[in-house]
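Lab notes, practical 5.
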Amino acid sequence: MLSPFFTQIDMAADVYEAALLRCCAAEVTSGAVFDALHLVVAEKIEADLLLTFNIKDFRRLAVKESPLVAAPPDPPGLVFDF
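Output from the prediction step:
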């Protein structure tokens, strides 16, 4: 079970508002709202890194406070020792 390794983040209205404002500022629509939600939550929890295979879309939404946006190796070669 992986649940012990995850923390649930409750997203209040301010998170959704920040994501929508970020999309408006970047002049993006559609699925980018979901990228913005992930990025705003990562900022809220002060994450250092956001891993994605969709670097371009996340970087266009990033601000100074955003975590580093990077791609994991493809195919993934990381091994986690739980």
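Observations recorded by the TA: The chain is about 40% helix and 5% strand. The chain has a mean pLDDT of 88.
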